[in-house]
Structure formats: C-alpha cells, structure tokens
C-alpha cells in the first residue's frame, strides 16, 4: 500500500493559519496567494482523510485533532530547518540566512553600532531581524520562526543554550536639578514609588528593575504605562516622574536634547545580562557562538 505523506509546504500553510487565524494574513506570511494556501490545506485534509479546520465566513476554528497536528507540524518544520542548517553549517561560518529576534530594549541601542561592522566583515551573512518582546521572541525561537534571540537575562527561556555577551547596568533617570539628586549613585530606598515610571507588562526590563530594587511595594505602586524607553524618557523630561534605563540606551544617546540626569543604581543586582540564545542541540550552535562573540565586541 502506498503511503502519501504531507509536504513541509502544506504543514507550513497549516501552522501559518493557526498563528494568524485568517486565510489572507496566513497567505501573506507564506508569500503565496490565498487561493494557493486554501488549496494546499484542502489537499492536506484530503490526504489525511480528516477535517483540521472548520471554515465559516467569519471564523477560522481548528478542530481538536487540528490543534494536535499543528503541534506536531511545528516540530517537523523545525527539524526540516535544522536539516538544512546542518548542511549549511559545513560551509563558510556565518553565511547564508539567519533569523534573529531582538527585544525592544536592546535593538535600537545595540544594533546600529554592531550591524555596519557585521555587514562589512560578514558580507555573505543575510541577517533577518525581528523586534519583539521577550516572551514573543522566545516563542518564535521554539516554533522555528527565529534561529536565535538577543535578549536580557534572567528570563524564562525554556530549553535553550546561551552565550553571555556583557552586563548592562541599570541607571536611575530623573529631571535635572532634582533636590534629591545624590552626587554619585542612588540607593533603592531613595526611590519614590509614587514617581517611578516603568514599561508595561511584557517587557522583561520591568522585572529586572523591580528585582534590582528589591522593594515589594514598588510592584504595587509604580506606574506601569510606558510602551517604550523613548516614551518614558519624554515623560520624565516633562516632570512626570523618574524611571530606570539600561546603560546601553544612555550611551546610545537616548537622553540627548533632554534635561534628564542618569545615576547608577546602588544595588547588588543593578544590571541585566545581555545574551544570545538558541535552541538546544542546534546544528548551528558553533555559528551562534561566533555571532555572540561578534556582538560582544566593542
């Protein structure tokens, strides 16, 4: 008896539809027409002899079996990509395509300094960048949408390997001429919880700041409203409070044009670890370690 196996392309269509919940958006993500994607999914269901997706005019709903097939499809697609990566790894190091997710509190401050040199020294490397919060970036890694992630630790990453790049100090930022401005560093006890502005949930920097301060009342009292570090800087510059910034952002000039002072936080854990992580047992592990070395070079 002949056994007909699903193609990786059909599984890619299925995973994209599950991720986007819409045929048009899934087709765009796969760079095909909506009719091509729909036909591929119908062929897959016919091949398997089951219904994976319930289609209505307004809703795309996966069956219970469809959800199970999607979970398996993620693993098969990742294995297919790692097979290709295994072959590629035997060629020139850091060449070909590489998809890297970067968190928003790193991307605009580190990448402009690193990428020109990387393009010059590694011209055959095609680096595709995706900026997303830590949780989404880690999910992209485990689902095969990203090959590696540049993020800040500690953070729950699951089964990964990591390469340390450097430590990034946390600085307290507040309006110039503040009467409580100390000459050098600021102790966590001096931070007014009613004035502290933090990034909204989903940004790991918020958790790093609260952990560094080690003051439980800050978690309940701080205003968690900033969508980006640039937004927080503008709020502080307008006298609405104080915040904490990673040193890399200050060195990159985020405070230029403002009346804001930044002082080191006086705490045992007043820094975050910048690291590159990738899936455990990836055949491109040596390439990622080499990339980490490149990213860590001043």
From TrEMBL:
PROSITE patterns: HTH_LYSR (PS50931). Belongs to the LysR transcriptional regulatory family. The keyword DNA-binding applies. It comes from Novosphingobium fuchskuhlense. This is LysR family transcriptional regulator. Pfam families: HTH_1, LysR_substrate. Keywords: DNA-binding, Transcription, Transcription regulation. GO terms for molecular function: DNA binding; DNA-binding transcription factor activity.
